[in-house]
């Protein structure tokens, strides 16, 4: 099982040009972490006093949870000790109860070795404990989580745990109560904009006006998504012989957003004037709706995305009365659930559209 | 002699007949040396796999077509042995992890780590990384998808993933945000006509416009189906002239027969007859959800407008139940019984049940 265990720093030096920007621009220190002021303030204090509680980081994807803990660990231990003092486990490692009992327990009970002088000449606080990072902890089984309970207490003198997850509700209560919780908020528009702008400038990205704003809007507070979009778009536009500035169109294509004309076509067949209100004159019979839904499927759009955009287009319309609108929203919600549970895309979307149509027809 | 579908499958991106902008984009990505993880999605028969293979060829040259098939054994933590068939060349490896059902996470973890930790041995290889192709990525379990997350970032140096799926709805958001999404939409009718004419020309015969139209209509945007139907037609009627009907697969006609039976008579004894037919279909390995959908489609076409919405509603309802449950036949039967009751109620009282 050599494959598993201590954090593997990149085995071969990578051509920085080919590195994903998400990795390249990961914050090196916790001060660089964008817009999580409360968390950073607390952590900075604990960095100064070198005393760390067990921690539980939770929040939506792309808000910097993993980046923060990695930066913190780096600042605490420095590059040399990092490998011997930090154990990073994520969902790609086997994390059943067996691993908790063997790997984690063995690592947790080792007494940390003394810190030598760091090779890069800087001094690090190097507190006398080790750090175990359990990334994506919400995908650990209940049993494995319960097995951790006692371990966390027994070895708390020499080991600190940091649990990182998206949904705090999936962490069992006894574990959550042993940790101090940090909530990571979706990034504020301002700070993610600054970050994206910084990356765009240092990578020399050429973009049409409005592109960066669009990226941020589509990413919706997820900085990783925003950076990935930017890099992918940059790849596409500089890959050919003559680099062109990134266009709004290609961002739409990359993000998998359904173009407005497809959604509008669907809305019209349901008897809704896009941006207007109910207009039953536009409504087509059953066959019209079925044809539109078929078209969506044939062009390969994902039903989940279509549903989301249908929802966004339908709900702000002020002219639709409350009750039909609520019924339409229920239809959308139920369809979304069915899709998550693995229902057939075409059938579910068709059913949802018919229900919306009926709900609006009663208005 | 190979089938036309394989014989005329485009080998390189330049040969693909439709979506030229997609081809040029894939080509420039392959040339840039900065190749991302890619998720191909689109309806079946649209040409996802063809484009994946062509992109690989663009990346590594013709060496990628020297394939070998391996049977690999994986061991789960509970010591169960899993056999997985793996297709690989020197540069890539292709697998369908959903074959092993709920144990797909083990396969994903083992294979990816193995690939990721061995570097490219062949010094003449054009790229430093290897490619892992995952088929049917949308039927991967949540666990398996979660296992992909960090691996995709960590081992970016040695490995790239290409995933192939019908829809992105069932792919978890963290994976989607780590991939370049490439949509392959089904070819339009004109594009399909071009492909059919191209094949006819290569086979040195003339394809009448009427025949081409009826093939396109029957295949519903699925080019693979279109070519298969085309070849079958050519076998039956070498001249392709006159009024020919497209040979539908027998299971489709069989499903249509079942639908007609349901509409003719609604009674307990008829339900028994229908059940025998459905067992017949299932025992011939026609996937249960395809059976249900085909029957529902046929019924929708035949019933009055007032009933159509309820038929679709119940089809969607029971299809979902079928995915959640484990015994497929129960749900198809429940669907049939429900439809019978709806149809009968409508015929007797002229009203539809309110299913809200």
UniProtKB/TrEMBL annotation, chain A:
Gene Ontology terms: cellular component: DNA replication factor C complex; Elg1 RFC-like complex; nucleus
**UniProt domain AAA+ ATPase: residue ranges:** 51-190
Q: Which GO terms describe its molecular function?
A: ATP binding; ATP hydrolysis activity; DNA binding; DNA clamp loader activity
Report keywords, A-Z.
ATP-binding, DNA replication, Nucleotide-binding, Nucleus
List localization entries: Nucleus
User: Where does this protein come from, organism-wise?
Assistant: Apiotrichum porosum
For biological process, the GO terms are: DNA repair; DNA strand elongation involved in DNA replication
Which protein family is it in? Belongs to the activator 1 small subunits family.
Superkingdom as given in the UniProt entry: Eukaryota
> What's the protein here called?
Replication factor C subunit 2
Q: Which SMART domains match?
A: AAA (SM00382)
Q: Which InterPro entries match?
A: AAA+_ATPase, ATPase_AAA_core, DNA_pol3_clamp-load_cplx_C, DNA_Rep/Repair_Clamp_Loader, P-loop_NTPase, Rep_factorC_C, RFC_lid
Automatic annotation (TrEMBL), chain B:
Q: Which UniProt keywords apply?
A: DNA replication, Nucleus
Q: Which GO terms describe its cellular component?
A: Ctf18 RFC-like complex; DNA replication factor C complex; Elg1 RFC-like complex; Rad17 RFC-like complex
Location of the AAA+ ATPase domain: 34-187
**Where this protein primarily resides, as one coarse class?**
nucleus
**In the UniProt record, does the keyword Nucleus occur?**
yes
This one is known as: Replication factor C subunit 5
Q: Where are the transmembrane segments?
A: none
Name one process (GO BP) from the record.
DNA strand elongation involved in DNA replication
Keyword Ligase tagged: no
Q: Name one GO molecular function term.
A: DNA clamp loader activity
Coiled-coil intervals in this record?
Answer: none
